[in-house]
Amino acid sequence: MNGDVRRTVRAHSASIVCGMDKPSTFPFRFRERLYAAARLVPAVLRWPVTRLVAILLVPVAFCRAPGRARCLACQWALGLRFPAEDLRGLAPSALAAFTRARAEAFWRDGQVIGLTSGYRDAELQRRMFTEEVLRTGSVAAARHRVLPAEESSHVRGLALDVRPVEGARWLERHGGRYGLFRVYDNEWWHFEYRTAEPVRLPHPAEALRTRP
Ligand SMILES: [Zn+2]
Fold first, then answer.
1. Who contacts 77 (Cβ-Cβ below 8 Å, separation ≥6)?
2. How far is the CA of 135 from the centre of ligand 1 (A)?
3. Distance, CA 187 to ligand 1 centroid (Å)?
4. φ, ψ at 119 (rounded to 5°)
5. CA of 62 to the centre of ligand 1 (A)
6. pLDDT range class, residue 5, cuts 50, 70, 90
7. Cβ pair 122, 149 in contact under 8 A
8. Widest CA span of the chain, in angstroms?
9. Higher confidence at residue 14 or residue 108?
10. What spacing in Å lies between the alpha carbon of 102 and ligand 1's midpoint?
């Protein structure tokens, strides 16, 4: 995929959150102030505050996307709860599945799910793999935790590392309805968008032998 095509795909991915046809236009400075304020909220109050923010944002979201107001309001509220997360670069199908799944988790079961790591460019994945090789002392051992760029679903925009553990458990139980599956025994946080449920593998090093 050349640079222009990749940029187009990434821009499109960022624009389809909750079925929206435009990316978020929250003013940058206002958003930064909200993020700073969100960091001051004590841990015990984070869920009630996040839920209250989402409820207050529903009417605003309704003006933007009447059919998906709750999903969009949840997306905005979780953006404040997890200010470091970056949904850009995910494949459109994976992004849509993730945002819809975590909206259901949020509104129905009161469970927040944040993204720790989604799309990674090949250079970053190469660096991570090299560092893991140095840390573990061998390519074979490194592959148990990090795959080379050409094999990684993160580079293809189809993998999502999530948090917290409770959110990952929710996704493991219900994510299949959205095509999101946990695929490795040794990575509770790693999910992938698939069109069919994959065979669960002990670790990423097993991926090459069974990948369709
Ligand atoms: Zn991962």
1. 50, 51, 53, 54, 57, 106
2. 18
3. 8
4. -70, 135
5. 33
6. very low
7. yes
8. 55
9. 108
10. 17
DSSP 198: P
Q: Which helix (H) or strand (E) holds 191?
A: strand 190-193
More confident of the two residues 13 and 32? 32
State which amino acid sits at residue 92.
P
Contact 153, 159 (CB under 8 A): yes
What pLDDT, in 10s, does the model give residues 82-140? 989 999 999 999 999 999 999 999 999 999 999 999 999 999 999 999 999 999 999 99
How much distance in Å is there from the Cα of 154 to the middle of ligand 1? 7
Give the separation between CA 35 and CA 139, rounded to whole angstroms.
Answer: 39
Q: Which residues contact 13 (CB under 8 A, 6 or more apart)?
A: 87, 88, 89, 90, 91, 92, 95, 119, 157
* Two tokens, residue 185: 């025994």
Rounded CA gap, 39 and 30, in Å?
15
Q: How far is residue 98's CA from residue 77's CA, in Å, rounded to a whole number?
A: 15
Q: Residue 51 in contact with residue 110, Cβ under 8 Å?
A: yes
- What is the enclosing helix (H) or strand (E) of 117? strand 114-117
Task: Dig out the tokens for 110 from the structure.
Answer: 């009161």
The answer, as to whether pTM is greater than 0.85, is: no
Q: How do residues 155-205 score in pLDDT, each as one tens digit?
A: 999 999 999 999 999 999 999 999 999 999 999 999 999 999 999 999 999
Pairing of strands 190-193, 114-117: unpaired
